[in-house]
Design goal:
Number of strands of chain B: 9
CATH superfamily of the largest domain in chain A: Bira Bifunctional Protein, Domain 2
Structural class of chain A: alpha+beta
Helix content of chain B: 40-55%
Number of helices of chain A: 20
Distance between the termini of chain A: 89 Å
Number of strands of chain A: 39
Distance between the termini of chain B: 82 Å
Strand order of the largest sheet of chain A: 27-30-31-35-34-33-32
Largest sheet of chain B: 7 strands, mixed
Radius of gyration of chain A: 42 Å
Oligomer: heterodimer
Number of helices of chain B: 12
Shape of chain B: rod-shaped
Order of helices and strands of chain B: HHHHHEEHEHEEHEEEHEHHH
CATH architecture of the largest domain in chain A: 2-Layer Sandwich
CATH class of the largest domain in chain A: Alpha Beta
Chain lengths: 806, 339
């Protein structure tokens, strides 16, 4: 909300020091976005009169003008100035930037030659004087600014037009539509500085012989739930013209473009009171009847902007005897627009249902200044003051003759209800010791009607304050005017102990472990492209295609919730690979989502993905990381079994990590990513990655460590080397060794795998180191030999192994 | 026969010239050995009269001890020199690089959440989490958001169905807490949130918040100020000042935004604080009775406060990050800076 301070000061006294004003306003709840000053950066620009205009000989768009700038020029000589604006003509007043002048943005104007013709300055547009293009008066927006009034020739422009101004842009929260007006902000300022709000003096008394509005028009509201009040007033002998400068000036500083007197006056009152208004050409209102109703069936209707719209039966229309003339609170109709020859107008000041306006404006795709205000709420009590003010300004600006009286349909009239507020409750919330009198003072300062008895108030807020509905709302009013900075600073009593979930703790441990191995944690979007399932080879019918879809995604790439973490991790690898980052090892812990049925919250399941590329990163590096992680989480019994059917991975280089205790549980899958999948992510390096069900991992985690006595008896170590078929896995051999080893086999370690010389093709040599130990005695050679023999026999039987000399 | 003192002088001379263990040993044998010169003197003393014997014996013993000490000294010096020679030979260039170990690191968002959480854990808050996909009830209705509140629009919120959505704030965890537990309640809730913002330097369709909720008997707005002032000082430095400005949130009344004096310039105004000296850090307020009523909490007996802060914003301020998209691009050159 742009508030020119000179306008605000008309209604309320505020401190001279602008900094003091702003600081206090911020602390009482009117936060400030920007403070902009105008005029100070304009120097040596004067009012000039164009005496003559002739075409420039060497140009088809430049004109050579003689401009009278009075005593601003030596000997009162007219200045020759070259001007490129199409609207320059004789006998107009214009802003003239003299030689050596300064304009906003640090522009300096100097005498010079334009295509060989001397030019002693510049005739300025409103834009060149620091006004935004969107507020330049409509009449002159594409050219120089033809001044609207007879300012004295030669006078300093800033002084003559009053271009010095401070405009404060207040940030208005959605609960305070009353502050979208100069009077609303003045009410805040009055409460903040303990001063009194002065409302504008306005009269809608009819002009002599003009008659009364009720003789010409009638208003009927068929849908009182959508329109609680409709006031129509009339003016005739209308002259459409440029508004007086004082009015244009305020509109421009408040961010609105002057258009003509009728539009400007309705805009002015909207800014002043926060109440939208609309003017109809009375010629176009058939039967002089205003009928507020929704159509029975879809109707076609052309709005002011020339677009034909379909008005549905749930949208409110303003009709005359024959049909629609405006979409209520949203936009007027083409058919009832004010024209240059409009003789008489009907001014609508109405209160429409905020939700209805919001939905209509949304469905029609029209967002107007009026609709955005109606959406937030316009109190019906305000309609009267606003309509009076329009009539007042029509008369004061000589725009027309006011007809006496109003046609006021007010089916939604309700007595203002007082709200009970307990002083003790206020102190309890704020932690203050304010007396009832202090509180009452604050509330009355905000124009509230307060009746107090024994620390209990009955408060009636001003009708503009739609946000004050219940007792607690007044705690903020009291708190903010008293000052949040004056409230105490204490710590709550009570001694709770902190807790967090196992999942939270285990996530921290997983991160700590993986970052300890040099992996970088990443965070990727919770959504992904549905194509990610194709890219990672997920088969049709898989649960990983059971997407939770967004109704309104930003784009296809973020249109479904992820069912796995790998695709976004591969995407992150793609980004790093494209940027030539070497040795990239990443992991993420995050939610995956699968549908649980319509309107049910989906299954959210935490997952862990690990993946990377680089010189020292291969399947076994990845497996080693996972093994170490499992050890850290106290899950030692996980097995890794080949999985040739996981579509994301190389069929010969992929394993499942499996727990086989009570049933078979697959923790996750790891492997070298399938070359086609890598290709889909533009990765032409081997990538090894894994995705593990974090929830399973967490459910199996055991962070308790029981002490085991340190070994007291010596171990016996025996190595064996076997030659087996390539098809025999290390795990099969180890399983066999363990099965035969019994209690005294402490550990088995595969320490060498050899293929090549001395080993026939299709076979490999596996070398194991076996450690035997008993907890309660020194093992005899005989004991060890017996078990060792059993192991060898078992291996031969299970795997067809041939023993090889070690 | 030579005087013992003469032997000492001679031994000194010889030891001074000795350059190896062997040279020293030769000296020892010559003077102190069984057939050594000093031994010979001692042996020859039997022929002397008692007074002379006593004098000579004392002198000889003293010289023997002195030579012994000289030998030990020389040995020590020599072995020191040898060791030094070895050390010299073994000298390395300590400015050569150390072995390169890979350091991983938590994502800067995780680090910031951890940092925030630790401060509130130290004040007795518990961590609780809620789902990323939420119901309209938990995200809006129960939080006192008006039925026509614009934040409910498709232009602001991602919807899954008419009744389920991606939560736009971590505040629904407040509702879940109020519905499932009895006061006193003292929780924080970090997590992901979503809004339909097209990514640019300052917007992201996904971001993180940390929400806080305290409900107990006699909780006041002064307690809210004290708690969040404590947080700001722990998070950004003891010299930081806080300022509470009135604001609006549907689920708190009174509501406030907390500004913090700019940690970069100390409040004089700079680029970080856009010249104002203050930085907006979080939103907060006293829990609206309508929210407490959702959980059947007696609003006369119990009051509470809630607050919520944007993790990305805090991380960006703290580390001087200019573009929010960097967090989700996961370029290791970015991530590695937070090791």
């Amino acid at each position: 909300m742009l508030v020119p301070l000179s306008w605000l000061k008309e209604y309320v006294d505020i401190p001279k020091d602008e900094r003091e004003f702003c600081d206090r306003m911020i602390m009482t709840g009117s936060n400030i976005e920007t403070v902009k000053t105008f005029g100070d950066d304009i120097k040596n620009v004067v009012v000039g009169r164009v005496l003559s205009v002739r075409p420039h000989e060497d140009s088809d768009h430049l004109s050579v003008c003689m401009v009278d700038v009075g005593d601003a020029a030596e000997h009162n000589e007219p200045l020759q100035i070259v001007c490129g604006a199409p609207n320059v003509r004789e006998d107009i007043l214009v802003p003239v930037a003299l030689h050596g002048s300064e304009l906003p943005g640090g522009h300096r104007i100097k005498r010079g030659k334009l295509r060989g013709v001397e030019s002693n300055g510049m005739i300025c547009s409103a834009g060149e004087l620091g006004f935004d293009d969107k507020v330049s008066p409509l009449l002159h927006k594409d050219g120089i600014w033809i001044l609207p009034e007879a300012f004295p020739v030669g006078a300093d422009l800033v002084e003559a037009m009053g271009l010095r101004e401070t405009v404060v842009d207040f940030e208005i929260t959605p609960n305070r539509p009353d502050c979208l007006s100069i009077i609303g902000m003045a009410r805040e300022a009055a409460a903040s500085f303990g001063s009194k709000l002065r409302y504008p003096e306005a009269s809608a008394a009819g002009d002599a012989d003009a008659g009364t509005a009720a003789d010409h028009i009638s208003v009927t509201i068929h849908k009182p739930e959508l329109c609680s009040r409709y006031i129509a007033r009339m003016a005739d002998t209308i002259v459409i013209k440029e508004s007086p400068w004082w009015l244009q000036r305020r509109l421009m500083f408040a961010g609105m473009r002057p258009i003509n007197n009728i539009v400007d006056i309705t805009n002015y009152v909207m800014l002043e009171y926060g109440h939208p208004l609309h003017a109809f050409d009375i010629r176009t209102i058939a039967g002089g009847e205003i009928i507020v109703d929704t159509p029975e069936t879809d109707v076609k209707f052309t709005t002011l902007d020339g677009t034909e719209r379909t008005i549905k039966p749930d949208m409110l229309l303003i009709n005359d005897a024959e049909g629609g003339i405006a979409v209520a609170g949203v936009m007027g109709g083409r058919n009832s627009e004010i024209e240059a020859d409009t003789q008489a107008i009907l001014v609508e000041s109405a209160s429409f249902n905020s939700n209805s306006v919001r939905l209509t404006s949304k469905k029609l795709g029209i967002r107007s200044e009026a609709s955005s205000r109606y959406e937030k709420g316009v109190p019906p009590e305000l309609s009267e003051a606003a309509s009076v003010r329009v009539m007042d300004l029509l008369r004061k600006t000589g725009s027309g003759r006011v007809l006496a009286g109003a046609v006021d349909a007010y089916p939604g009239k309700a007595e203002p209800a007082a709200i009970r507020v307990r002083a003790a409750r206020m102190n309890k919330l704020l932690g203050t010791d304010l007396t009832p009198a202090e509180m009452a003072g604050i509330l009355t300062g905000l124009e509230m009607d307060v009746k107090e008895g024994d620390g209990i108030f009955d408060v009636t807020p001003p009708y503009a304050r739609l946000d004050l509905k219940e007792e607690v709302d007044f705690s903020e009013e009291i708190g903010r005017i008293y000052g949040y900075d004056r409230l105490g600073v204490t710590l709550p009593r009570g001694a709770e102990s902190s807790t967090f979930t196992d999942s939270w703790r285990i996530r921290a441990i997983v991160r700590e472990t993986l970052t300890g191995f040099g992996l970088a944690e990443i965070q990727t979007y919770s959504f992904e492209s549905p194509k990610s399932a194709d890219r990672t080879g997920v088969p049709q019918g898989s649960g990983k295609r059971d997407f939770v879809r967004l109704i309104n995604p930003l784009g296809e790439d973020t249109s479904v919730m992820r069912t796995q973490l790998l695709p976004n991790l591969l995407e992150a690898l793609r980004v790093n690979y494209r940027k030539n980052n070497e040795n990239v090892l990443l992991f993420e812990i995050g939610n995956t989502f699968t549908s649980a049925g319509t309107d049910e919250l989906p299954n959210e399941r935490l997952s862990l993905a690990i993946g990377g590329y680089g010189a020292e990163w291969d399947f076994f590096a990845l497996k080693g990381v996972i093994e170490a992680l499992l050890k850290r989480l106290g899950i030692p019994e996980a097995r890794f079994e080949a999985n040739a059917a996981a579509p994301t991975f190389h069929p010969g280089r992929c394993a499942d990590s499996i727990l086989r205790d009570a049933g078979t549980v697959t923790l996750g899958t790891l492997g070298e990513v399938h070359p086609e999948v890598c290709g889909a992510y533009d990765l032409d390096v081997p990538v090894c990655a894994a995705e593990i069900d974090f929830e399973l991992l967490a459910s199996r985690t055991d962070l308790f460590r029981a002490y085991a006595p340190l070994d007291r008896y010596p171990a016996v170590t025996r190595d064996i080397a076997l030659v087996v078929d390539e098809a025999v896995t290390a795990l099969e051999a180890i399983d066999s060794i363990r099965a035969q080893g019994g209690a005294i086999l402490e550990s088995v370690k595969l320490f060498d795998i050899y293929r090549g010389r001395q080993i026939e093709a299709g076979k490999k040599s596996l070398a194991f180191s076996l450690v035997y130990r008993a907890a309660d005695r020194t093992l005899t050679d005989g004991e060890v030999a017996t078990v060792h023999e059993k192991i060898l026999a078992g291996l031969t039987e299970k795997t067809g192994a041939a023993l090889r000399d070690v | 026969m030579e005087r013992p003192e003469t032997l000492l002088t001679e031994a000194e001379r010889l030891l001074a010239g000795a350059s190896s263990e062997t040279d020293i040993e030769a000296v020892r044998i010559r003077f102190l050995g069984k057939k050594g010169e000093l031994t010979a003197i001692l042996r020859s003393m039997g022929s002397l009269d008692p007074e002379e014997r006593k004098q000579l014996g004392a002198a000889a013993n003293s010289v023997r001890d002195a030579i012994g000490a000289l030998i030990d000294e020389k040995k020590a010096a020599l072995s020191g020199a040898l060791r030094n020679e070895r050390f010299e030979a073994e000298r390395i260039d300590v400015t050569e690089p150390g072995r390169a170990y890979r350091l991983g690191q938590n994502h800067p968002i995780t680090q910031t959440i951890d940092e925030i959480s630790e401060i509130f854990l130290s004040m007795g808050y518990s961590i609780t989490e809620g789902p990323e996909v939420e119901t309209v009830f938990h995200n809006f209705d129960a939080l006192n958001a008006a039925p026509n509140h614009p934040s409910r629009d498709l232009t602001d919120t991602f919807y899954i169905t008419e009744n389920t959505l991606l939560r736009t704030q971590t505040s629904p965890v407040q509702v879940r807490t109020i519905l499932s537990k009895k006061p006193p309640l003292k929780v924080i809730s970090p997590g992901r949130c979503f809004r339909t913002d097209t990514p640019d330097a300052t917007h992201s369709p996904m971001f993180h918040q940390v929400e806080g909720l305290l409900v107990d008997e006699g909780v006041t707005m002064a307690d809210l100020k004290g708690t969040l002032d404590f947080f700001a000082k722990r998070m950004f430095g003891a010299e930081v000042k806080t300022k509470f400005r009135p604001h609006f949130f549907p689920f708190t009344e009174p509501s406030a935004e907390m500004d913090m004096s700019c940690f970069a310039c100390g409040g004089t105004g700079c680029r970080v604080c856009k010249g104002s000296g203050w930085i907006e850090i979080l939103g907060c307020g006293m829990v609206h009775p309508n929210v407490l009523k959702v959980g059947g909490i007696d609003t006369e007996d119990y009051t509470g406060f809630a607050f919520g802060m944007g993790v990305e914003r805090i991380a960006m301020l703290k580390h001087g990050i200019q573009d929010i998209r960097l967090f989700y691009e996961n370029d290791v050159r970015f991530l590695g800076q937070f090791v």
